[in-house]
Amino acid sequence: MIGTWVNMATVLVGGSLGWALGARVPSRVREGATIGVGLATVVLGLRLALGTGNILVLMLSVILGGALGAALRVGERIERGTQRVERLFRGRPLGEGFLAASLLFCVGPMALLGAIQDGLYGDWSLLAAKSILDGISSLTLAAALGPGVLLSLVVILAYQGGLTVAASLLSSHLAGFSPQAPAAVELSAAGGAVVLALGITLLRLREFKVADLLPALALAPLLAWVASVL
Question: Which of these, 224, 220, 223, 209, lies nearest to 69 by C-alpha position?
Fold first, then answer.
């Protein structure tokens, strides 16, 4: 799990610096930075979503995932959790920064493939490259959105670390893993759709309950497998 620890370290350093700098930056500058983050997030989301190999799988995963997330009140549960943590930060808003950072750092092929490579072969070079990008991104995000970005460390550990451990334990079954596998492709595409919704929310074009879309990330690989069987 060296790659995950390195990734967490760069996010911790970048996010801490961004948080410290953001407190000294005028509000109008932070607002401009937030717009920049929103635009970059929209571009990233579009790029990932357009990589789908089966538009029907993408549509179904997002539609069913959104309905399931709303029924389970995923967004409300996450919001209540972040409100409890906000008390430790003297009431500073954390939800937006936490969700934005968690999605940007964990959705995408680099996180998935890098974590699996680390678990299968001990090769964390891809996660090292991702760590540099995430460190820079965390600085910008924390300056614009505040200390909630640092809470994404828990998600990075659980997601990337969990994938690495699982890949190590299941190495005999994953030796032929390919990022071009339908399940991996559709997971990345569904993640792109969620990231796109996040970008639109950051730009204040429309307020989405982005967390309610998170079940789409679990449904996409399952639907891709069903489509391949059919």
Answer: 209
